[in-house]
What we know:
Elements: E1 4-12, H1 32-49, E2 55-64, H2 72-85, E3 87-98, H3 105-113, E4 118-124, H4 128-134, H5 140-153, E5 158-164, H6 171-183, E6 188-193, H7 201-206, H8 216-232, E7 236-239, E8 242-244, H9 251-257, E9 262-265, E10 270-273, E11 276-280, H10 284-289, E12 299-304, H11 307-318, E13 325-326, H12 327-334, H13 338-351, E14 355-358, E15 361-364, H14 366-370, H15 372-377
Parallel strand pairs: 1-2, 1-9, 2-3, 3-4, 4-5, 5-6
Antiparallel strand pairs: 6-8, 7-8, 10-11, 11-12, 13-15, 14-15
Amino acid sequence: MNKRELELYIHIPFCARKCAYCDFLSFAAPERSYREYVEKLIEEMYGQSTAYRDYAVTSIFVGGGTPSVLPPELVEALFVAVYDCFAVSADAEITIEANPGTLTMEKLETYLNCGINRLSLGLQSADGEELRTLGRIHSYDDFLKSYQRARQAGFTNINVDLMSALPGQTMQSWKNTLRKVMMLKPEHISAYSLIIEAGTPFYERYHENPEAFPDEETDREMYHLTKELMAAQGYERYEISNYARPGYECRHNIGYWTGAEYLGLGLGASSYTHGFRYHNVTDLEEYLSLDLRESGAAAREIQELTPEEKMEEFMFLGLRLTKGVSGSEFLERFGKNMWNVYGEVFEKLSRQGLILEEPPMVRLTELGIDVSNQVLCEFLLG
């Protein structure tokens, strides 16, 4: 019997120090908290696993926070439980996020022994002043040592996270960051524009100081420069902000963008399974106090998606991919013709040069990608 596919997301909220721009559920904590948290995470894993015996786990993503702050024995304990609780496919993509300066050879070897086959390194910038502005605790040299150590350990699939449109950043400093990273030939590069989120130190510092940032035109120029330089070095843009060498696209993230079922484990982790969307409790003390031996004990704000909401998500997540969305898949998934549902929207956006219709595919044009936030809002129904 063919099993249904499932992605796992495992949240590690701890980091060495909270970055000034970060609005993720993460925080610094004493090391004694790590073990208690991992033990509770394992308890949740066993509690949830009974509902997923008919699933095959095709990808696992350990994110944060900074998962690499955990001592290696806790990562090992975590993965012993993963393999005991879930049927993990032999070819599963298994990623762990790490920050430069937190990696040792012992940790890297443990990751490989646990079956982790993809490493995601958070560099953000190769410029020292920009890193200090972001509140990062590492230097480019720290990143370089971590990257080289990962290669020596045996990692053959590495992603590097980068960030543009930073305060004080110029076209030249962004170009220097891109070139330094591409010279290392990582398999994957994620390059996102900085978003200033309310409630972060960055918001307090900069929301009334827009002149500190590259203007909107420079931001777009940075984006187009990224695409051009990446293409020249053999990186394909397969999603608005993600580039990969052929065959190294992030399967886990593609799952999110194409509506795959995923189970989130740990503090605040989000899930989408059995047609329901929900997230776990976000308070650490509450999470640690729960009895998680029962499936779904940490779940909050459970929402069953309507057919219309599922169609909306299919469109505005799928259109992030450069290949676009498939009318054939839409028909198979929803029993409706995509052009009957969205024909007027397609006509309007096509007339404006924002989408390209190549039946059965519809995708964003370069202009559409430039204003993607506005374009994607057009696919809300009702």
